[in-house]
């Protein structure tokens, strides 16, 4: 058969190819058909001189021949084979994660199976379900996927996806509480159409309320709650936040943040309660207890202690992200310091019953936390006895190694149970499947993670309850939550300077001027993680701005005038007090890493203006960290830190005008 093919091709060459004058890629194609490099005499014994000259050209141009007809075809062949294998494996995975749109089918009847019996203890239910699962179904449970990356909702059941999340800014259209509930209930129903009916878990960063929404109460960021030093208040804020989330079907909050930061230049500084380990541990425990107190329905929502561990010790200039300076950087410290300063808050949360722990994006001892088996498997799961879900942070697994297969292996072997991928769920399933088949991962290791995930799902009540009812949405309009948020703002206000006890403002004060671009800007009050990841600018959410609160509380008792730029062209006499409200533009994570923490030039100029307009000047600072005000503090009569107060700016006015006392204390260093 081969001889016949060569004969035919030889005839074609004689007809189509002229006697060569130079070697080209075009005529090389024909040469390859009947000449074999250096061994052509063995293949074609009756060659003419014409044919021999072609074959001699091959010998004289071995490099070119190899390039065109050996190396390139082999590379292309290798790609084709690899692509075919991957496609066949992916098809196999999809086929094996079976669906059951109709439970009446023989293999889809699960209601009488032991794991569906809510009267059994959780351990027995997990054991029964786990033994029924295919490898693919187990892998699916380990995947935490961003909802917007799931273009086809049926992929939730096709791949047995364990959990979905909304990255900040990822929301339904329209962005209403009704749309949120409808969207998540739909995802839950799709997940229950899988062969074994395993429900998804849905999570978000509800770090100061259901802050994806524009029309609900938003609480102060943790930096403000830390200034209250009020355990009971923090517990109640956590419960209220949990009620907000659960009303839309969200039973997994990526909160509380238990970092103990030391450098205010870090863009996540405000997400923590403060820089004192004991304070963070005490308030973190209270927040966890607040989550666990939820009782509006039969579900039991969970929180997440993050970012395990030592993220607060990252050093300036150490970030592995070229766009950042601190965030995702190196935590440089001894193990003794790590245990003394950064471990107590996580230990307290575990003792309070936290159900998930998120591993940070930082590195320690030049190793990414998500691959650190000693810290995750030995310390967290072993020494601390944590029995819940260990989850990676956003893209945390694939930050480990440029080779995604190797990165996955390192993370799973280190003890990560659920990977916040958050996009490549098909690749992850395929890679883990292959790793087990090749012996790079044991199925026992997979079982350990999946058992933890299933246990938490059973504990939450995802298997035993219907999707959340619409009547629970009323909690998102709660007057009680609004009052609580205002209380939290009041208790967080911290006096940095108060010469001659200027504050609170005396009832005898007549003329008050208010200026500054943060006075009437809800977006700056809310800070980041509000509607969008990096926050918003302006008043397009519901709430009370600081200015509106001042006018509400002070109007009728004082003459109050506002001018954004501080010009006050109609003001003919010195005011008694000038209030300047300045702040930072919202920022999140490494995009908020900032070397210079001084006020903006325009803000300093505003202070100078107000000095000419008022007898006494008060600076009100809206910020998520301590700012450098040493050069201007001497020009001010009073300075107040209101942190990032959220939607209820009226709480600022309550304290400024003396309806409530100043109770806030610094939970971070701040030199003035």
Set down the secondary structure blueprint.
Blueprint: H1 2-16, H2 25-34, H3 40-43, H4 49-60, H5 62-96, H6 122-132, H7 135-141, E1 143-146, H8 155-158, E2 163-166, H9 177-191, E3 201-204, H10 222-228, H11 231-247, E4 252-253, H12 277-292, E5 304-308, E6 330-331, H13 335-342, H14 344-351, E7 356-359, E8 363-364, E9 367-368, H15 373-383, E10 389-392, H16 404-414, E11 419-420, H17 425-438, H18 443-460, H19 479-492, E12 494-498, E13 511-515, H20 522-526, H21 546-554, E14 559-562, E15 575-583, H22 601-611, E16 614-622, E17 638-641, H23 650-656
Parallel strand pairs: 1-2, 1-11, 2-3, 3-4, 5-7, 6-8, 7-10, 13-14, 13-15, 15-16, 16-17
Antiparallel strand pairs: 8-9, 12-17
Helix pairs in contact: 1-2, 5-17, 6-18, 7-17, 7-18, 10-19, 11-12, 11-19, 12-14, 19-23, 21-23
Question: How would you summarize what this structure contains?
Answer:
The chain has 672 residues and is of the alpha/beta class. It has helices spanning 2-16, 25-34, 40-43, 49-60, 62-96, 122-132, 135-141, 155-158, 177-191, 222-228, 231-247, 277-292, 335-342, 344-351, 373-383, 404-414, 425-438, 443-460, 479-492, 522-526, 546-554, 601-611, 650-656, and strands at 143-146, 163-166, 201-204, 252-253, 304-308, 330-331, 356-359, 363-364, 367-368, 389-392, 419-420, 494-498, 511-515, 559-562, 575-583, 614-622, 638-641. Strand 1 (143-146), helix 8 (155-158) and strand 2 form a beta-alpha-beta unit.
């Amino acid at each position: 058969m081969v001889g016949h093919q060569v004969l035919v091709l030889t005839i074609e060459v004689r007809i189509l190819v002229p006697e060569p004058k130079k070697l080209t890629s075009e005529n090389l194609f024909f040469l390859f058909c009947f000449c074999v490099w250096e061994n052509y005499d063995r293949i074609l014994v009756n060659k003419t001189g014409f044919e021999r000259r072609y074959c001699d050209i091959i010998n004289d141009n071995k490099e070119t021949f190899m390039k065109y007809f050996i190396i390139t075809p082999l590379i292309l062949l290798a790609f084709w084979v690899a692509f075919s294998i991957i496609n066949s494996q992916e098809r196999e995975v999809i086929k094996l994660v079976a669906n059951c749109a109709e439970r009446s089918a023989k293999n889809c009847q699960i209601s009488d199976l032991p794991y569906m019996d809510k009267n059994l203890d959780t351990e027995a239910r997990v054991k029964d379900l786990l033994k029924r699962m295919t490898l693919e179904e187990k892998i699916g449970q380990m995947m935490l996927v961003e909802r917007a990356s799931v273009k086809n909702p049926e992929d939730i059941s096709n791949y047995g996806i364990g959990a979905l999340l909304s990255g900040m800014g990822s929301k339904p259209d329209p962005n209403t509480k009704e749309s949120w509930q409808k969207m998540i209930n739909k995802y839950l129903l799709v997940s229950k159409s899988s062969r074994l009916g395993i429900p998804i878990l849905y999570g978000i960063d509800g770090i100061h309320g259901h802050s994806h929404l524009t029309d609900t109460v938003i609480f102060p960021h943790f930096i403000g709650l830390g200034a209250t030093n009020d355990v009971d208040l923090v517990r109640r804020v956590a419960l209220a936040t949990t009620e907000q989330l659960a009303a839309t079907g969200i039973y997994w909050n990526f909160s509380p943040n238990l970092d103990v930061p030391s450098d205010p230049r870090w863009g996540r500084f405000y997400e923590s309660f403060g820089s004192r380990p004991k304070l963070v541990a005490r308030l973190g425990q209270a927040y966890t207890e607040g989550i666990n107190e939820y009782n509006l329905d039969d579900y039991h929502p969970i929180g997440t202690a993050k970012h395990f561990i030592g993220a607060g010790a990252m050093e300036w200039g150490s970030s592995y992200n070229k766009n950042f300076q601190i965030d995702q950087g190196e935590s440089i410290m001894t193990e003794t310091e790590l245990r003394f300063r950064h471990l107590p808050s996580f230990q307290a949360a575990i003792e309070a019953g936290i159900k998930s722990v998120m591993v940070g994006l930082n590195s320690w001892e030049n190793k990414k936390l998500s691959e650190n088996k000693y810290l995750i498997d030995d310390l967290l799961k072993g020494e601390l006895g944590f029995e819940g879900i260990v989850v990676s942070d956003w893209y945390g697994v694939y930050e480990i190694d440029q080779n995604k297969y190797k990165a996955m292996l390192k993370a799973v072997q280190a003890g990560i149970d659920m990977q916040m991928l958050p996009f490549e769920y098909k690749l992850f399933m395929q890679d883990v499947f292959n790793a087990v088949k090749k012996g790079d991962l044991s199925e026992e290791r997979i079982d350990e993670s999946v058992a933890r995930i299933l246990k938490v799902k059973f504990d939450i009540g995802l298997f035993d309850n219907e999707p959340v009812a619409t009547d629970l949405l009323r909690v998102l309009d709660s007057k009680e939550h609004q009052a609580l948020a205002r209380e939290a703002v009041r208790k967080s206000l911290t006096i940095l300077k108060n010469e001659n006890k200027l504050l609170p403002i005396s009832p005898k004060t007549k003329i008050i001027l208010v200026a500054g671009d943060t006075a009437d800007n809800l977006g700056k009050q809310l800070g980041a993680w509000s509607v969008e990841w990096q926050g918003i600018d302006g008043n397009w959410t519901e709430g009370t701005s600081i200015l509106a609160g001042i006018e509400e509380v002070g109007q009728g008792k004082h003459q109050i005038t506002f001018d954004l730029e501080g010009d006050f062209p109609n003001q003919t006499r010195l005011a008694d007090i000038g209030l300047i409200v300045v702040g930072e533009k919202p920022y999140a994570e490494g995009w908020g890493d900032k070397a210079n923490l001084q006020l903006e030039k325009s803000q300093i100029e505003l202070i100078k203006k107000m000095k000419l307009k008022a007898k006494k000047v008060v600076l009100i600072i809206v910020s998520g960290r301590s700012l450098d005000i040493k050069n201007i503090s001497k020009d001010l009569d009073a300075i107040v830190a209101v942190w990032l107060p959220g939607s209820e700016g009226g709480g600022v006015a309550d304290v400024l005008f003396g309806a409530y006392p100043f109770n806030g204390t610094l939970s971070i260093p701040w030199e003035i």
